[in-house]
Amino acid sequence: MNCRVCDKETTEPFLSLPEQPPANELVKDGEPSTLYPLELVFCPSCHLVQLSSQSYIARQVLFDNYAYASSVPKALREHFIGLAKEIKSMVPSDGLVLDIGSNDGVLLKPLKELGVRAIGIEPARNLAQIANDNGLETIWGYWGMAICDLLGKSLNHPNNADVIVASNVFAHVESIQMFLAHVEHILKPSGTLILEVQYLADMIKDLSFDNIYHEHVYYFTVESMINVLSRSEFYIWKIRHVNTHGGSLRVYAKREMVAPSQKELRTIEPFIAGESDAMLDFHDTYVEFEKKVQGRLQKFRHAVRKLRQNKKIVAAYGAPAKASTLLNSAGLNVNDIAYIVDDNPLKQGLFVPKAMIPIRSSDYMKEVPPDYLVLFAWNYANEIEENLKQQGIKAELIIPMGPNNNLEEFA
To answer: pTM (2 decimals)?
Structure first.
């Protein structure tokens, strides 16, 4: 296949997981799931990792109705409160912020509370409705020229936004070039584009391959992000590493006419050096990653089934998209893990696709006490452990992924 960004034909495959359903497409009892390939390729030209063409699913299939609500995890709410405070310091008193992929308004809410005018753009009708019902100005639709025209008319000028934010959105889009062209249309010449993306270097280092699913078309390093933005009017102004989703980049991009200071440029250099040391610009690194992935899957499958053979009740906490990837890649189902609890009401009563494991509220643990709990939402381990303590749940925790995984204790 051709690289989606640089159009070179030499993309090199390195990871093929079993066919998967869309990870956030939770289903009703007995409802079948459509399965798709889930494969990654590496572009040796621009060094961008991306889904294979066979793995791509139309965005409307994935996002028209969406069960992931960003405001549920406390840690994520606090993350966006911090970002809102930072944005307030960047915009004038009459400034405007646009949040692309605003979800249920997790960033819009603290911005509004700080007196910053912010408009969300959200493709999932159900989430846009939740945000608007809560008084958070949100346009339902996919980011594109139609939204730009609508905003231009309502704001009386096309280039009127001081800051445009896209948190965990940039990796999802069909065409990066078109996405950026539409940002250029609305953003002031002196404005800032803030992108948050999961960091491929953390995924490789921590073996967090459960962050691979069909929504994530692209998997970024700083180097590949620079290569991507170099094909637009934008360049990276500065970068921060943030802790969300197992390790992410917050990228601040401006147009070429606004020169960064040496202090800001120095935020970029350590990332480039670290990526070079980790050899993230070589295909062999990713081939080795696949070998480690297969080993982790085998250990996880063995650990869970050993506990079940010993008549232990194994349940799980958290039904994020990463749970679907891990379960369906390991070939586990409701015979292995009895149920999953999740604090998001939008997910309760539904089932993880293909694995068909029911999702319950946390109260269900009192009805059917688990002996072991698999933390699929491992990036919120501290918050979950506190919740379990408050509920008096004493199950032993299995953390299968992430830098603090304890799978070796059970394998």
So the answer is: 0.94
Write down the pLDDT at residue 156: 64
- Tell me, what's the pLDDT at 295? 96
CATH of 300-409, one of 2.10.109.10, 3.40.50.300, 3.10.580.10, 3.40.50.720: 3.40.50.720
Give me the residues of the chain with pLDDT under 50, please: none
Tokens of 41: 């390729």
Task: Single out the residue of 182, 164, 185, 88 nearest to residue 120, CA to CA.
Answer: 164
CA distance 85 to 394: 38
Which residue type, as a one-letter code, is found at position 352?
V
Q: Which two tokens stand for residue 10?
A: 């030499």
The residues facing 98 across adjacent strands are 119, 164
Per residue in 273-301, pLDDT tens?
A: 999 999 999 999 999 999 999 999 999 99
Question: CA nearest 107: which of 155, 165, 161, 162?
Answer: 165
Q: Which residues of 282-317 are buried (b: 16+ CB within 10 A; e: fewer)?
A: ebeebeebbeebeebbebbbebbbebbeeeebbbbb
pLDDT of residue 158: 62
Q: Rounded distance, CA 284 to CA 343, Å?
A: 40
CATH class of 13-283: alpha beta
Q: Where are the domains of the chain?
A: 13-283, 300-409
H/E stretch holding 233 reads none
pLDDT at 250: 97
Kindly report the CA angle at 225 between 223 and 231, in degrees rounded to 5?
110
The residue assigned the tokens 């299939």 is 61
CB distance 132 to 154 below 8 Å: no
